[in-house]
Design brief:
Elements (H helix, E strand, L loop, with lengths): L1 H28 L13 E7 L3 H12 L6 E8 L5 H11 L3 E6 L9 H11 L4 E6 L2 E3 L4 H6 L8 E3 L2 E3 L6 H22 L11 E4 H6 L15 H7 L5 E3 L7 E3 L5 H12 L7 H27 L3 H25 L9 H21 L7
Helix pairs in contact: 1-6, 1-10, 1-11, 2-3, 6-12, 9-12
Length: about 375
Amino acid sequence: MSFTILFFAFLVIVCIQIAYYLTFLFSFSIKRVEVRLKKHIPVSVIICAKNEAENLQRNLPLIAEQEYSDFEIVLVNDSSSDETLSVMERFKKHHSNIKIVDAKPIEAFWGNKKYALTLGIKASKHNFLVFTDADCRPNSSKWLQHISSKFSNQKAIVLGYGAYAKKRFSILNSLIRFETVFTALQYFSYASLGRAYMGVGRNMAYRKELFFNNNGFNGHMAIKSGDDDLFINEVADNKNTAICVSKESFTVSEPKTSFKDWILQKRRHISTASLYKSNHQILLGLFYTSQLLFLILGTLLLLIGYNWLWVVTLVVLRYIVQLASFGLAAKKLNEVGLIFLTPFLELFLISTQLSIFIANLISTPKHWK
């Protein structure tokens, strides 16, 4: 009798998983990418940098040379101890559209990126703000054209895709890229359904007036992370958010090269999820819980050999739907090589996320860098 209950619980879990993946499939994965470039609106690109001298030296030329007629670059030095400020000043000598904000440390906001970002936003002169990080490079010289084209009278937020550079023969790199695509599949799908819950600071944009109408980051200033996802979670509604997933609009970052550094980064990101709106927490929590239970119950039922033909059928059906949804999204996001690694990487990712969740219950990361 107890095994029968387990089987029906597994059946329910599989149905939940399939429902989610079908939702992702039809709301994002199979949708065509629409590219309609518009007249260039004035934009301010804001980059907050802390000890990023080398990355700025490498990536700033690609931003400064964007094929865009009216934009400024606001560089925020967040109390760096390296040559970050000097690099910024050298670039400013050659580019009249660069503005520098030197954020001095103050006790009330020590180590808080949101304080530095707020100074950068206040210093910007345009109403349309585009955000990226110092370690990001635009995927094309038309990055700003594509991102800004998604703004309209109704759309005040644009969510872009921040990819990670590919490294051959690296399990960690494959895992990082898989997690990035998997997360993008979700937040693009939710945004397409009018339920946007997050964005990534590596590539996103919004109107300045939206920031000030929300009193900036005041609702979560004490939280060291969340300048991107927590802010979007607060201000996005069912009409004001657009997504931009043309390959020319991507940014590309250098990924972490050690599991320790990546785990610390993910701990900071995951720590903000408990502050999302309750409906987002429920939907995301149900999805991740069903993922974990699918693996646990499926493995258990196969080991005891209970109704194994039905269990195998359900497992195969779930993976077919998942691969269709994830595979089409991966193709759209230029990560086709990850598709056939999905079952292995998913298992690794779920185990890692569970470990991070437990670690964050014990202690929460304190600094953004």
